[in-house]
Design a protein that fits this description.
The protein is an alpha/beta fold. The chain contains 15 helices and 17 strands. Helix 5 links the parallel strand 8 and strand 9. Helix 5 packs parallel to helix 6, helix 6 packs parallel to helix 7 and helix 12 crosses helix 13. The structure holds N-(iminomethyl)-L-glutamic acid (NIG) and fe (iii) ion.
Length: 409
């Protein structure tokens, strides 16, 4: 594989001797930056880095990064990129003032995607998801969490997990798989909710865990979807099978999702548009990472999660795209950074930490992604020439990532 020297780097971001820790509260605004720097990659790993006064003379190949930033690739710890077809008709309904919940009640939304997915073959699903992954890489993403959740039957959820497994094997990015067994209640179970919960706990969770098809378990714990009691039951089953949870919570209401997630020591609770003092205090006493998905609030016209209050209270924040066909049909992490600044008043340093170090922790890839660390795999992006790091979220909508170097562990 040889060696690659990136030199004259305008801004080298998140380069550390050892894996950094999660950034919380005030530390979210402290960004690790070296100006006029170099990084040496050997056999796919970070060998060394420093400022230009110590730059090695030679390497197998040399990249000049004058005026550019070198950053760890983004981690995207919450996506639903295995899906079939699209839902632009619902996009139009929303423009005509129908709400997400009304669309869902009428068989649209997740149930609509489930119908489409059930008729698709694994190959079709793989090919479409592969194209999405490639586009995400071009935006600078190097690690992706992918959920099932559009199958809704045992067979179709397992089919989705098999597609995710193949993506793990064949894609150059690192992928984590989540069984989202309880994404929406299929219509035929409306009078028999317990039976669906039983299928999740007694069939989906055991099969996915025993066959190594899932790293995590997820439930949509929210108004109109699954209750706290149902969520508690399903998380208990997931705990028993050694699947940590990463759950959808408090997107549509103060659902109790944050509390039940923390009770089960969830790795992350995600969305959190409805977060008040109780929820913040619960999170402060836990190791659960609040993961915010600002493009969903943007796309559905919801109010945004109170990121500022959460950070000021001392919490960490991770950011993700939620890439899915209904509420966030985009995998552009750079746009997420801009939205987090513009709509949640996060600062440029905070969004950069949230999309790298913290996002890596939110999918447990912090020893391979989210920072540029000696001895660890080189997963780095090189930007265009930029005047400062704040320029990245400032230039919303553009893709300023020029080159992406990926090395799986
Ligand atoms: O994260 N909130 C639940 N699930 C997805 C929406 C999926 C869909 O509408 O298809 C989300 O926003
Ligand atoms: Fe989601």
């Amino acid at each position: 594989m040889g060696s690659t020297l990136i030199r004259n780097i305008g801004f080298l971001v998140q380069a550390f001797e050892n894996t950094p820790s999660l950034c919380k509260g005030k530390a979210m605004n402290m960004l690790n930056v070296r100006e006029n720097a170099w990084v040496l990659i050997e056999n796919g790993k970070i060998l060394d880095f420093g400022t230009m006064d110590t730059c090695p003379e030679n390497a197998g190949s040399i990249i000049d990064a004058t005026g550019k930033a070198v950053l760890p690739t983004w981690c995207d710890p919450h996506t639903h990129i295995v899906f079939h077809g699209s839902r632009e008709q619902e996009f139009v309904y929303k423009l005509q003032n129908m709400t997400y919940e009304e669309i869902a009640k009428n068989g649209g939304g997740i149930l609509n995607s489930a119908k489409k997915l059930q008729s698709a073959s694994e190959d079709e699903l793989f090919v479409a998801a592969e194209a999405r992954v490639r586009e995400m890489i071009a935006f600078g993403t190097g690690a992706i969490e992918i959920k099932s959740g559009y199958g809704l039957t045992f067979e179709d959820e397992i089919k989705m997990l098999r597609v995710i497994k193949r993506l793990k094997e064949e894609m150059p990015v690192t992928i984590k798989a989540t069984l989202l067994g309880a994404h929406a209640l299929p219509i035929e179970f409306r009078e028999n909710r317990d039976e669906f919960v039983r299928i999740v706990t007694e069939q989906m969770i055991p099969y996915a865990a025993d066959n190594g098809l899932a790293d995590y378990f997820d439930v949509f714990c929210d108004k109109g979807f699954f209750t706290v009691e149902e969520t508690d039951k399903m998380l208990t089953a997931a705990d028993k099978y050694g699947l940590k949870s990463k759950i959808h919570a408090n997107e549509l209401d103060f659902s109790g999702g944050i509390q039940v997630g923390v009770k089960h020591n969830a790795l992350s609770v995600d969305h959190l548009e409805f977060t008040g003092d109780d929820e913040i205090n619960t999170l402060l006493k836990s190791n659960t990472i609040p993961t915010l998905l600002p493009s969903t609030a943007f796309y559905l016209n919801l109010h945004f999660p109170p990121a500022r209050r959460m950070i000021d209270a001392g919490l960490p924040i991770a950011l993700a795209t939620d890439y899915n066909p209904g509420s966030s049909p985009s995998g552009n992490m750079s746009f997420i950074l801009s939205l987090a600044c513009l709509k949640m008043k996060m600062l440029p340093n905070e969004v950069l930490n949230a999309a790298t170090i913290n996002a890596a922790f939110a999918m447990e890839v912090q020893n391979t992604h989210g920072a540029i660390v000696k001895g660890q795999p080189a997963n780095v992006s090189i930007t265009q020439k930029i005047p400062s790091l704040a320029y990245l979220p400032y230039r919303f909508g553009s893709n300023l990532i020029e080159q992406v170097i990926l090395n799986k562990a």
